[in-house]
Every structure is written in structure tokens, then in C-alpha cells.
Design goal:
heterodimer, A: 109 residues, mainly beta, B: four-stranded antiparallel beta sheet, 11 strands
Chain lengths: 109, 115
């Protein structure tokens, strides 16, 4: 089992749709969780940190479920500009982050 | 402006040559990381360093070497021993207060093509 796994993509959704991504992790001792956005041929950019209580930033909501060991990212009212690959990252021992393989999102007009 | 710079953006080399990728940060971050990304795949950790003059192997360190002589700089050398060096190389950095890990910030990356 991979240490961090994401929903396989791609996700193709119409503009205005709500889409959710899940990311499961295997290390129950993990403490820090993040969502990154990566545009084609660019570097990943931090989208959100994920806190125990869940957090929201505009149309984006991130949640953590420690019991089931997964984090989620919900995007409401999808825009064309949301098209990208979304990577989850989970901290691991020794100050390392482990990244998922990414989920590609394509928002269509 | 604070940030992470990587140079060059594109690099072409012949097989058998060593090549060094530059990574510099002026964020005063403690830790620096090198990742490799292949098409359609996630990031794989090559090496990381939490303090000057110390570094650890990541998951795919074979064929690579690093140094951390200054806090701001963490160059990566791709040696001729690396079997499939063509990839997108990303450098990242983060603060490490205590045992917490904060979010990592990435440089723009270097695309290395070896023929």
C-alpha cells in the first residue's frame, strides 16, 4: 500500500459543478496535511493547509478525518481556471512530506 | 522579493555527463528538499537537508549527490550513474520549528533532458 494515495483522475466537470477529491494516508502518526495545486509544466503551489477542525478558503474546503486516515478537498462552483492537478501531501518522520500522485481536474465550459 | 530560485529552467546534456542544478532560497528556511517528477506522476524525494553541512537520502537518491555548505543553497548533481535522468527537478524549502513540519514552498523547477 502506498503511503499516500489519491483518487485516480482525470475528473472532467462542467463549470459551476462541485467536485471533491480524497487522499488517504497510511501513517497514523502523521500530523500535517496539505493540498497543492500544480498547473501544467509548473511547480506545485500551496493551496491549503488542512487543520483538524477543517478549514475553508472561499470556494475551497479542506477536511481531515483522522479515524479513517484521509483528507479531502471540496471545490464549489468550479471555474475554468480551477483546471489543474491537485496534490495532497502528508508529513512523515524526519521532517519529510510525502506527496500523492496527484488528481487531474478539467473544468469544461 | 523572497523566494526560491532554480537555474537553469531547461538543461540539455549528453549521456555520461554529470550536471549540477542550482537551488537558492532567501526565505531563511531551515530545510531544503530535492524532488523529481516524471510525466503524470507525483513527486519523489531525492535528498533533503535540515541543517547546514548535513543531508539525508530520500527515496530515490541513487545516482544523485548534494551539498549544503550554506543555508541558502542546496545544489543537486545528477551523475552519470543515474539511469534515467530526464525529468522535471523541483527544489523546495520550509521552516522547521521544533518537530512540526510547515508547508513546503517550491522553486520553478529545472527540466533536464539527457540524450
Amino acid at each position: 500500500r502506498k503511503e499516500v494515495e489519491q483518487d485516480p483522475g482525470p475528473f472532467n466537470v462542467p463549470e459551476g459543478a462541485t467536485v471533491a477529491f480524497n487522499c488517504t494516508y497510511s501513517n497514523s502518526a502523521s500530523q500535517s496535511f496539505f493540498w497543492y495545486r500544480q498547473d501544467c509544466r509548473k511547480e506545485p503551489k500551496l493551496l491549503m493547509s488542512v487543520y483538524s477542525s477543517g478549514n475553508e478558503d472561499g470556494r475551497f474546503t479542506a477536511q481531515l478525518n483522522r479515524a479513517s486516515q484521509y483528507i479531502s478537498l471540496l471545490i464549489r462552483d468550479s471555474k475554468l481556471s480551477d483546471s489543474a492537478t491537485y496534490l495532497c501531501a502528508v508529513n512523515y518522520r524526519g521532517g519529510k512530506l510525502i506527496f500523492g500522485q496527484g488528481t487531474e481536474l478539467s473544468v469544461k465550459p | 522579493d523572497g523566494g526560491i530560485t532554480q537555474s537553469p529552467k531547461y538543461l540539455f546534456r549528453k549521456e555520461g555527463q554529470n550536471v549540477t542544478l542550482s537551488c537558492e532560497q532567501n526565505l531563511n528556511h531551515d530545510a531544503m528538499y530535492w524532488y523529481r517528477q516524471d510525466p503524470g506522476q507525483g513527486l519523489r524525494l531525492i535528498y533533503y537537508s535540515q541543517i547546514v553541512n548535513d543531508f539525508q537520502k530520500g527515496d530515490i537518491a541513487e545516482g544523485y549527490s548534494v551539498s549544503r555548505e550554506k543555508k541558502e543553497s542546496f545544489p543537486l548533481t545528477v551523475t552519470s550513474a543515474q539511469k534515467n535522468p530526464t525529468a522535471f527537478y523541483l527544489c523546495a524549502s520550509t521552516q522547521l520549528p521544533g518537530q512540526d513540519i510547515h508547508e513546503q514552498y517550491f522553486g520553478p523547477g529545472t527540466r533536464l533532458t539527457v540524450t
